[in-house]
């Protein structure tokens, strides 16, 4: 059985890795370099994470993940 903090969370390990980098204060460009992908892909993935979490901004997604103990 999943823990209460992850039971209904629509994020995978890659999503959480992206959020961790944003939480460290890295820019989109630096996150893209760290993840070996393009800026556009990071922006698209960040928008998808925000949509799944029902938040408007990447910082709100980071805050929600942190509150759930995932970061």
From TrEMBL:
It comes from the Bacteria. Residues 8-65 form the HTH luxR-type domain. GO terms for molecular function: DNA binding. SMART domains: HTH_LUXR (SM00421). SUPFAM superfamilies: C-terminal effector domain of the bipartite response regulators. GO terms for biological process: regulation of DNA-templated transcription. This is Regulatory protein, luxR family. It comes from Asanoa ishikariensis.
């Amino acid at each position: 059985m999943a823990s209460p903090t992850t039971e209904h969370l629509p994020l995978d390990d890659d999503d959480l890795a992206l959020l961790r980098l944003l939480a460290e204060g890295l820019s989109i460009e630096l996150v893209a370099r760290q993840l070996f992908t393009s800026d556009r892909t990071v922006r698209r993935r960040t928008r998808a994470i925000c949509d799944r979490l029902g938040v408007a901004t990447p910082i709100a997604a980071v805050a929600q993940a942190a509150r759930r103990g995932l970061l």
